[in-house]
# Entry
Amino acid sequence: MNSSHPGRGVAVEGCLRERLGSGRKALVTYMTGGLGADWVRYVEAMADAGADVVEIGVPFSDPVMDGPTIQEASGAALAAGSNPSNILDGIAGANIGVPLVAMTYYNLVVRAGHLRFARQLASCGVRGAIVADIPLEESADWEAQAAGSGVETILLAAPVSSDERLAEICRRSHGFVYGVNVMGVTGERASLSESAGALAKRLKAITDLPVIMGFGVSTPEQAAEVASYSDGAVVASALMRMVLDGAGPGEVADAVSKFRRALDRA
# Structure
């Protein structure tokens, strides 16, 4: 366990505020749950290499927000028999030194029931949730059940959102506000859109929650770029491509370390 982190028992927002309060930018990484028998080792390696928060992807058969890489990872995990229960069981007793956030789709949440799903997350030590496809207008009950169970709902903010909608997202988000760098799905990109900086500035002007930017952050240099106008970066597809191509936990940890160093210089 990385002793520089406050630990997975600490709320996501508390962990990130501690990181930002020390003058450093935040790094959020992602691992598809159930992708290989040793997938939890990748989560542990990410945490030890400097990730402040790790998203655990709970695969769904129709991941509409995800691009080819995470779709491929999700498909492989599902084909191997992964499901929400065995993914959560897998991390329940794991030695992970940072807060965990479940990233999934509403079909899985509503099938389990809002309260039951929230309690399942909390009982396994998951402190946050991103439900990528639930409309803001329909998420109030989920947010309430999650909050009552000790799970922070992290909401996505898109570049095309109106000022009024961004304000509502910031008011209702917990843990951090997830700024979407580009319109479209997740995935590696050669460069980031100018809309990323504009969105981050809009969000920073209306909330004191950590603003973490994701979608398309593929290199340490890009992570440093987005961190120059926000509080940190989410790195997902770039790491999942490594796992799919056969990289072991140590190699992924080396990559995370490079992102960590780039953000520490940002």
In short: DSSP finds twelve helices and nine strands in the chain. Residues 53 and 97 are 9 Å apart (CA to CA).
